[in-house]
Design a protein that fits this description.
334 residues; mainly alpha; two-stranded antiparallel sheet; 4 strands
Length: 334
């Protein structure tokens, strides 16, 4: 039941993110945005889905058919399934049984998140290579180099969090962030580990191919990048994969650095249904703030050059994350 619920949440939040992207973009650029199809344009994603469903599915000459058709699914499903490791709220007692609002519990959650994050790049790389288009292939190569570079920085940032919380279990990490200092400063890892928080946040932008890190699909240089030769619903899967990955990344940032479903002043150990829904609301409120920031950055900052992107990853974030691990170890011995 929880698996179906998580996947249903992802499938519902992605179209809403497409609508929010357009509305926030219009707000930033002093435009109106979608407002014709349904109230406030809320049915615009549905109209787009219908259009893509009936759009002609063009198959270019010379493609590797197996990988060409497999690539969109490889891009979307790993991005959508990363949400299965997230504890969305406090456990709820239902009919005498404790219902955990998390699919993959225990110490394997973070390993699964990193594995699925790395697996999603195969869809982009295969799509670019199988398309028989040099611009698409360049986009796939850029995506491979980018994900490899920034996943190292992301993983090293996680090490600092694990050292601070003394665990790799996401529920333990959330529990370690409950309470306050001086009665008002939350004991979130964003406060305990600000450097790791910034590194992970920047790496999340790169892992999801969001501006200013959208070099794999840079229109000015690569036409459309890895999905240049895709149309119809196969193109839409690539499009939706980006938003699913963005949602999952914001959920992980909330869990690791912003206290997860907890909030200063909330009691712990309550397994009531109302308390469970309250924790769900707290969690998604934090996620929505992060999603708004992700979208705002896209329409605010210019795109990096590729050499700047690689310089930032290898010469700035990775050395900084290693230094942060060393500092965390020293501080733990004091």
């Amino acid at each position: 039941m929880v698996v179906v619920g998580v996947f249903g949440v992802v499938m519902q939040i992605v179209p809403l993110l497409v609508w929010a992207e357009r509305r926030i973009c219009a707000w930033v650029q002093d435009r109106v945005g979608p407002n014709r199809v349904g109230p406030f344009g809320l049915f615009q994603p549905l109209a787009d889905a219908i259009k893509l469903l009936f759009k002609e599915d063009v198959l270019p000459d010379g493609v590797d058919r197996f990988l060409y058709f497999l690539a969109p699914a490889l891009a979307f499903f790993p991005a959508a399934m990363t949400a299965t490791v997230i504890p969305f709220g406090a456990p709820i007692m239902v009919g005498g049984d404790l219902l955990h609002l998390q699919v993959c519990r225990g110490n394997v959650g973070m390993l699964l998140f990193l594995a699925l994050t790395g697996l999603s790049v195969y869809g982009i790389a295969f799509g670019g290579w199988a398309s028989n288009n040099k611009f698409a292939m360049l986009g796939g190569l850029r995506a491979s180099a980018q994900v490899l570079s920034y996943e190292i920085a992301m993983g090293l940032a996680l090490v600092s969090v694990f050292m601070t919380s003394q665990s790799v279990d996401l529920n333990v990490i959330v529990a370690d962030q409950t309470g306050t200092w001086l009665g008002f400063i939350p004991k979130w890892n964003a406060v305990k580990q600000p450097i790791a928080f910034v590194i992970f946040f920047v790496a999340a932008f790169a892992e999801t191919n969001r501006l200013p890190f959208d070099l794999p699909e840079c229109e000015a240089e690569l036409i459309g990048g890895y999905h240049t030769e895709y149309s119809s619903m196969k193109f839409s899967l690539f499009f939706l994969a980006e938003y699913a990955a963005m949602f999952s990344s914001c959920c992980m940032i909330t869990t690791l650095f912003l206290g997860g479903w907890s909030f200063p002043g909330m009691p712990s150990g309550n397994t009531g249904v109302l308390f469970g829904f309250l924790t769900l609301g707290v969690f998604f409120a934090k996620v929505l703030v992060l999603l708004f920031f992700f979208i705002l950055v896209r329409w605010t900052l210019p795109r990096f050059r590729f050499d700047q992107l690689m310089h930032l990853g290898w010469k700035s974030l990775i050395p900084l994350s290693l230094a942060n691990i060393a500092a965390t170890g020293v501080a733990a011995q004091l």
